[in-house]
Amino acid sequence: EALEELLATVLAAPGDETAAPPREVLDTLYRASRGNPLFALQQLNSWIQRDQLWWASEERAYKVDAEALAQIAETTEALWRDQIDNLAVDVRLAALAATTLGSSFERALLEQLLEAMGLDPAAATLALVQEQFLIPDRDHLWWQHDTLEEHLSTELLRLDGGESIFLTAVELLRRHPRGRSRAYTHLIARALRGAGRPAEAAAEMLGCLEQRWEQQRIALHALDDLAELEADLAAPLRGRFLCLRSRAHWAACDYGAAEKDATAAMSWAENQQNLELQAQAYQLLGEAHKARGRYADAAAWLGQALDAWVVLERSQEAANACVALAQGDHYM
Fold it and tell me: How many other C-beta atoms lie within 10 A of the C-beta of residue 62?
């Protein structure tokens, strides 16, 4: 009954809400959808778009093509595939490009992307809303369903020339006021992977984590983000990665894992003769030992960190090492 009421509301006769939609349409949609409202609405929209279901104003009644009632798609994805195939070329390209912006995004952002691609942003956006691909919500747009977005994203990956769309999106997202936020960095990284630049995607995420570490939300998700980027990490970034993962383990109170990563970072930095990363690794080792109650070992590592920071003329980091040393002395 709920599905029938929904369909009756959608098919309310223009100017006469009491006029009932064709019974055969409601029965066919109910049987085919098995009560799934998304499927029923998508099939209904497909009939309307193909002019197989229309309102006859003179007769004040809906008319339906009898053959349409026998042409029922088996899945929602099949309906979307059919709808996508019938899009105008520019509108289809706009739909593919919109997937680079995530599950919801600013209308202005999509229009900037489409304009950069040489499309008519207003016309293409309106068409996507009319096709019910996108749902407007004030100044934002949402995908009608996650599965639709995923389907179009996969198609964009296979598209000849798709790389240029991904890179255009990357440039636009980086310029956005929230371009260094975690959410936008994930979008940028995804677009870079789509463009075939996984190492650059990993570097983008690592840089975001380093710059915004002090924000609690970033620290909370750090281990997940680091696990995501590790496979694509370029060798020269390994030391920075290990230092940051050590900090993330420390923040999660896993001091054994923090010590392990700090030790690996120290070895990497010493082999590369990178004094700055050596200083970070010494500091991390000192903090890990201090957290585990090994105050003498902690003092030794923090002393090396202090010496390195002094050589590097990094006064703030040197002061932090001094504070850590003083805390360790207090507990010894």
Answer: 16
φ/ψ of 179, rounded to 5, equals -60, -20
Give which of 183, 168, 190 is closest to 113, Cα–Cα. Answer: 168
Residue appearing with tokens 């929209």: 45
DSSP-assigned letters across all residues of 217-259: HHHHHHHHHHHHHHTT--GGGHHHHHHHHHHHHHHTT-HHHHH
Read off φ and ψ for residue 17, nearest 5 degrees: -70, -10
Question: Taking a C-beta distance cutoff of 8 angstroms, is the pair 320, 312 a contact?
Answer: no
pLDDT in tens, 113-138: 999 999 999 999 999 998 888 999 98
Sheet holding 104-106, edge to edge: 104-106, 140-143, 134-137
106 φψ region: left (φ > 0), alpha (ψ -120 to 50), beta (else): beta
pLDDT in tens, 205-239: 999 999 888 777 778 889 999 999 999 999 999 99
Q: First and final CA of the chain: distance in angstroms?
A: 73
Q: How many beta carbons lie within 10 A of that of residue 326, not counting itself?
A: 10
pLDDT in tens, 261-283: 999 999 999 999 999 999 999 99
The contacts of residue 73 (CB under 8 Å, 6+ apart) are 43, 46, 79, 82
Cβ-based neighbours of 271, under 8 Å, separated by 6 or more: none
Rounded Cα gap, residues 245 and 202, in angstroms: 14
List of long-range contacts for 126-132, beta carbons under 8 Å, 24+ apart: 127/87, 127/88, 127/91, 127/94, 128/91, 128/94, 128/95, 128/98, 131/45, 131/49, 131/83, 131/87, 131/91, 132/41, 132/45
Element housing 9 (H / E): helix 2-10
For residue 146, CA distances in Å to 134, 139, 143, 187, 316 come to 11, 20, 7, 15, 46
Which pTM was predicted?
0.77
